[in-house]
Each structure stands twice: as structure tokens, then as C-alpha cells.
């Protein structure tokens, strides 16, 4: 585009003389789009949605997933007795509460509250291991399968493929579960 502006400016200078010099200089110096406009158009990431949810309802993220233009975030209070289902607008970052329960069984959330690796850390680890955009993270403490507690993370690559993996809640080690086509 800059080449086109310069070419047009040169043609105008030849045709109109010095009076067009100021116009040509200002057109060449003008940015394509202000940085603030570009930033405003960016979506809220999974990490941003988690941070916004925790600011609105402090605690520990138990799960987060994107559905269209909305992030659904479940947060457990640090004492394990409170649970909130929140929605974070993916365009604005605005948080709304779907429901709040303040009479939870604290023992039910003991493992996620004690995890050394948080949901945000699991998201970062998964994206570092498999580049793309984090789409969901969910606590998995299924003792029935004999595995250690972990975070299930879904990452969507630029080519539209979805990668599902686990992040160990103690070590942060990432293990792949599957690669698949876009299933949206």
C-alpha cells in the first residue's frame, strides 16, 4: 500500500506541483489503522477469560470452555464452599453470573484446590506443547481410572484441527490424547 501511495503522490506532484507536497507527505505518514482499534477487535483469550472471571468471583478455576462468543467459567472459592458459574463475553470481557452456590461440600473440591498446577498454567503448558488457541480446560480427578489428577485441555490450531491433551496437576507434564478435525 505504501508503494501505491508513493506512486500516486509522485503523479500528483508532477501534475499539481508544490501545492500537493503537504498532501503527499501526510498521506504517506498516516498509519493504516490505529493500534487501539486493532486491539479492540481482538477476542478475549482463555487466559483473559479466566482472569476476568477470577476478578469477578475470586477463587480457583475448575473449568472453562468457549461456546461461540461466550466463555463459560466455573470458579470454586478457596475455602471450597462456594461455586459460581460465570459467563465472560469473548468480545468485551464483561462477566455475568449464571448461578452462585455458597453451600458446597468443601471436601468435593479438595483436590482442585490443592493442585500445584492451576487451570491457567495448564492452558499455557498445553499451548506451548501444541501451538494454537486454548479453547477449554477442565479439572479431571477421576480416581476410578487409576491416573493422577489432571487438567483436560483442548487447543485449536490455525488449520482448524483440535488437539486434546492432559496436563498433570502436579508436574505440569503434557500428554496428548488425540488430534482430530474441527468438530464445531
Number of helices: 6
- Taken in chain order, the helices and strands follow as HHHHEEEEHHEEEE
Q: Number of DSSP strands? A: 8
Structural class given helices, strands, pairing?
alpha+beta
Helical percent range?
25-40%
Classify the beta-strand content into a percent band.
Answer: 25-35%
Q: How would you describe what is shown here?
A:
With 184 residues, the chain is α+β, with helices and mostly antiparallel strands. 32% of the residues lie in helices and 32% in strands. It has helices at residues 2-16, 21-29, 35-41, 46-56, 110-114, 119-129; strands at residues 60-67, 70-76, 83-89, 95-101, 133-140, 150-156, 162-168, 174-180. It has an eight-stranded antiparallel sheet with strand order 4-3-2-1-5-6-7-8, with helices on one face. A hairpin with a 5-residue loop joins β7 (162-168) and β8. α1 (2-16) runs antiparallel to α2. The protein is flat, with a radius of gyration of 24 Å. The relative contact order is 0.11. The model is unreliable at 1-41 (pLDDT under 50).
Summarize the topology.
Blueprint: H1 2-16, H2 21-29, H3 35-41, H4 46-56, E1 60-67, E2 70-76, E3 83-89, E4 95-101, H5 110-114, H6 119-129, E5 133-140, E6 150-156, E7 162-168, E8 174-180
Antiparallel strand pairs: 1-2, 1-5, 2-3, 3-4, 5-6, 6-7, 7-8
Helix pairs in contact: 1-2
How would you sum up this structure in a few lines?
The protein has six helices and eight strands, in the order ααααββββααββββ.
